[in-house]
Amino acid sequence: MPYPTVNVGHAATGPLSGFRLAVKDLFDVAGYPTAAGNATILAASGIKTSTAPLVRTLLDAGACFVGKTNTDELAYSLVGGNIHFGMPINPGNPDLIPGGSSSGSAVAVAAGLADIGLGTDTSGSIRLPAAVNGLVGWRPTHGSLDTRRLRPLAPSFDVPGFMTRSLEPIAEVMSTLGMPATNEHPLSILIVEDIFETLDDAVADEMIVSLRSAAMSVRRIDTISSFSLADLSLAFTTILQSEAWESNKTLFERSPEAIAPDIAARLLSGSRLDDGEVREARGIAKLFSEEIDRLLCEKAVVALPTLAMSPPTRDATPESFAAFRSACIKLLCLSGLSGCPQLVFPIPGSGRRISVSLIGARRTDKMLVNVAKQRWFE
Q1: Active-site hit among 68, 77, 101, 330
Q2: β-bridge pairing 355-359 and 342-346
Q3: Which listed residue (24, 68, 330, 366) is catalytic?
Q4: What are the chain's domains?
Q5: Whether residue 326 lies in the annotated active site
Q6: For this structure, is 310 an active site residue?
Q7: What's residue 336's pLDDT?
Q8: Tell me: the pLDDT tens digits for 128-141?
């Protein structure tokens, strides 16, 4: 999206000095419009006069703003395409999708155009593009970061998040944003059998070898919840669609033709949900969150693959994109429903660029980085 260059000031010194910052075009930045990946929103935006407080914090810590980045329309996809502004090119494999919805921020970091990619994660929009592009991605504990002047999609799940090429910048960002410091180490890594049963055998074997080589106690459990992954995914999708409709109802009713057909279809699905369906889904989310709290209360960390299947090519059919999105949400919804932080990173030395994820109890964001540093990257 060819915005003119505007000088966005930053502190001359600070913990993020020397880091280049790319900002997803959902956050307001003074001197720029905010489009949220939609041409009608762009036309109505006007030039913003205030910067989102989260972005301001990063700038005040010395990060240098290098530009706003593409997003899937309304941040409502995981593929990385946009009918209005195109699909960014995956630098590591141009034939594959870049992943979304924080597609531009992921590509900017993967291509070496930025050091820190600021995006958002509702149903996986940090974690999935980080995995596809071989990056480190951090979905913070829900509610821990400032979301003012950030266009919402589904507030129950929306979280600002970050992507980097290595763990060190993520650790610096966490410190800058005041995430609680910790010297704690988890007592065990949990492998959930019913999740691993969904994987390709070769991928599952490589992940388990990697986990065992991390020199931590690995404990297998049958399931992560009393609910099936399918039930959790359905509850998550129900809440997501309901809130996405409320966030975009005015735009849809005024300019339905301005929204891509697949995005419009998902919005319409949200509009047709009845209160009982949404109430039942929220009940499942509450019970699941309580189950996760009990599971992780004794300093355990869940390890799982970031993606449920290999990403499709950028010229794949809409049906392939839909199947990929549906499969991945079964794993990506776990952090959303629980509010827990998730850190994703490529397995070192993995020729397949397999991405592993760690999920910890709320407010253990820094512990996840410590685990990854000490057990995988020493």
Answers
A1: 101
A2: antiparallel
A3: 24
A4: 20-176 (3.90.1300.10), 188-376 (3.90.1300.10)
A5: no
A6: no
A7: 98
A8: 999 999 999 999 99
